[in-house]
Structures
1.
Amino acid sequence: MQQKQGARTHTHTHTHTQKRHIHSVGELLYYASLSSPDKEKIAEMEEEITSPTNRRRRWWHLRQRWKMLGVFEINPEHEFFYLTSVIKEGMQAAIQSSMDSPIQETLTEEHFKAEETQTHTGFEMQTFAAPVFSKVRRSLDMSEAEYMSSICSVGCYLQFVSNSKSRADFFVTNDRRFFLKTQSEREVRFLLTNLHRYIEHLEKYPHSLLVRFLGVHRILVPGRLKKYFLVMQSVFYPDERIKSRYDIKGCEVGRWTDPETEGQHIIKILKDNNFKGQHIELGGEKSWFERQVEVDTAFLRSLNVLDYSLLLGHQPLHRDEQDRKHSLANLVIRTKKSLHFDEHESGVPLLKPPTDCNDGSTRPQPSSEEIPLQEIRHPVRSDSELRDFHEHHRRLLPDAKNAVHVIDGPQLRYFVGIIDIFTVYGCRKRLENLWKRLRYPGRAFSTVSPNKYCQRFCRWIQEHTE
């Protein structure tokens, strides 16, 4: 079982864990660690598939659908089964360590630099900045028990095969809620170096469209493999009714995917040129969406980053969803959810309109669907900053688990997220820019300066949003 050997430093903990037989020992460790309420919650989550007949029927249908979409179950015969097995075992211990640690509401430099190494039979698992990512998960209204239930479930991970040019390996949790993506050490170090700025941005703009990173880890099997990987919230969740998915960069060169290709078991991620003639129809959310894209891309520009993408998917809203989202009761509930409102931390009434400014000007009065959001646990140093914050936060989160990546328009529910934020405009990209200028004169390609990339990206959003 698991025995703690003591800590080398205050940030390094070594844990010896006996290797599980498939998943059974890991599951015993997991359930043994939970409190009674958490066990009851997990039981409720799995109750609907406990019947053998229902389970067999469910798995058969899921496997057929996965094969058609290019999502393959990583079973014992799969080339990545060993890797995903040790990832699961390591993640279980890492999340358990987070559950056993005190909750950190105020982050320090030590939390951002923390590295925890846990030694298991045959491999090591290293976790970076665990308190920081634990706080990100809490900001998404996600408990550690819920996170562990998904990441360390009995069901196998799924391999996601897309038409992306990335050399990274993509794994999806069995419930398709989280992505695990292998990254280079350089990319991981870039994220950790800028993690403080990333967290500050999310705290200032809690409805930011940037992908939510939930963990950074490294698996080391001596003499066999070393893999860095990130855990991310899936933008396309839940994906049962999503029919079309797009990867948008705001340019034209190489931005077409043949949607009719047969014989390739992959999810078709369409691109900019496939979106011609279409629009993102958001109605009253249009101005908020455009402004948030401007804010997020300005942040990426400050990091000297380019080549990021807007993931975009959509599905029709059910009639009851269209009716319910306009009701006052649901409006208040969703506003509270988006605020994480705590009356003990703020004396400002939830639905109170903004008051007049000290300079005599009047802040915009919200409509019934535009309730200004308050900044929680983020110091506002001036009245102009407060006005700026309210101006950029007039969005009501849908009643969905993946709310920060979901925007409801009049007829469609859109899934949106800005991903791939690790490409720095260094010497290599500058040379690539020079070559493409000669190769594609007068055409729009992706490798341009961060400033130009940001401007073009925002212009595409403005031209394609109604």
2.
Amino acid sequence: MNASLAFQSSSYNFSLKENQNSGAFVGQVQASAGSNLYNVSYKLRTHKDLFSIDSDGSIVSTKELDKEEQEWYILDVEAVDTRTPPTSAVVMVRIQVEDVNEPPAFSSDDYEASVFSIAPYKTPVIQVKASDPDVGDNSRLVYSLPGGNSSFDVEPASGLLYVVSVADLGGKTVSMEVKATDPDGLSATTTVKVVVQGSASSRDVTIISLNKPENIVKQNIPDLEEALGKALGWTVNIIQVSSSGGEESRMLRESVKTLVSFVTFDGDKAVKPQEVAKKLQSQSEEVRAELAKVLGNDVEFQLENGKDPPGLSSGQTAGIVVGVLVGLVLVGLAGFVVTR
């Protein structure tokens, strides 16, 4: 009596590197009818849109596969012989898609931003963003400025570009290349153009204090800028946010005091702090009402007369990042993002 149809293995495990072209060989299954009198044919019961099987049991891919989309595929393969009546057998095939390191890519080929020449050290300018299609450690990117730059630098982990020193660059445009590199050395680059404006000085800076923690204020800079501008009727650019107290005082709600330095513009002309102060005082209720929409009803503000912005001295400049936030609002950055 002839033996029944059976696969040579109770199950099969194969692997395939991701992004292989259609027709890539995956593995081969084999079944025996127990006699040379009978031929055996194979067919797939599952994932017929992604794989095919030849007459000899060879499995090939019919599409490129991406590990980041799906790592494992379970195929049911059926073997049928030619005896009368025919007999059949089914075996499970596991296919693992293996990772192939892929290069990162920036969300934009170029970025544009603007700061004033009085921007102090560490003033945020713009955050560039690259993504990596890989998973795990291969997706961790490090940002850098190839060749270095004496005017700007970038935070390696976040891609935040910030000011080193731009005091002598008023009226100039600085172009630089930012690079994102993955752990295996694959990289991508983008271009950042920063317009350094020189139309404001430290004499144009107004400082107020808020009874909110520094980190909360920093998270809401764009909204605060809009709120102050609406209340004052001018364009407001916040240039710096800093705490006025030590760690101990910041722990006490009633003693929290955060300084907000900003420059106000009427068209292209900077408004003198004296005029801003008068309007802050005469329209204090309107200002507080607009600030409350952002920071809560318990918010209070106070004009800080006669103080230099933290980190700035007379004759120096305070950085203003000017522009429109497109596509991405960054929580926790003390600055503004300008992309296109």
3.
Amino acid sequence: MDNLSSEVSTVLTMEGLAIPPEGVYPAFILGMLSYCIILFCNLVIILTIALDNRLHEPMYLLLINLPINDLMGATAILPQLMKQILMDSRSISYLACVTQAFFFHMYAGGSAQILIAMAYDRYVAICNPLRYSAIMTNVYLLKIITLVWVVQFTLILILVALLLRFPLCRSFVSNVYCDNPSLVRLVCADTTLNNIYGLFTIVSVQVVFVSAVFYTYLQILLTCLKNKQSDAKSKAIQTCVSHLMVFIILELTGLMTLLSYRFEKASPQLRKIVGMFAIIFPPTMNPIIYGLKMKEIRSKIPMFFRRKVSAF
């Protein structure tokens, strides 16, 4: 307990971004603009679904978890990074660093689990349409959403608990934000268990994620090909295209991030860029994809803004 108390008060130094003095304000403005776009786009999706009773269906109630998760990830990283850039202060407390890492990994793993739940919902809706309302009841939907968040919370809590066992012997975080790999490097003890658990979590989540998405969308594709109703087929394919685009973006950014850590010879600057890409790109693109590709949401967003304008 004494060791943990002393670690909490430790001040760490972030590596930060190599920005020349003349580039500080442009970098800050660009970062703040990115964060504002993420906030705006994701809040529009959340509020559009939350305030329109016609969108209170399983598909949209599952979808609303994705922008919530994206906001959590972006908010955990970008405000702290903007502070570093503007104030040229790379100091962060160990407690704040661990908290940032916790929410970053919640965001990273949560995206995969939410997309699994959404793929399952589309599988039931398209492959078993007559049983959909009987299967996807409010109680069952609540269980799915609760399971997604509880499983992810538990996995990351164990990851952090394994890290907190050790005292620190270093104080320099070789990244622009805190995550488990960069925090493990601050420990001089044997972290084999941490590495095994981290690798097991990544592999198991990825195997389940890719397998579930591949199976469900293969079944959906086969069902669509057999469906003779062109309207139903078009709607199903349109919905699935949105999900698959988000899935591909998540997989590509996740793979790039993992590879940047696994190759020790990778440029530190490249690792930073890849890390920032994983934080900014998915939360920006996901709401845009769903806002443009899903007709029901696309048609409700203008109504949402008209309602807000008339309220003033």
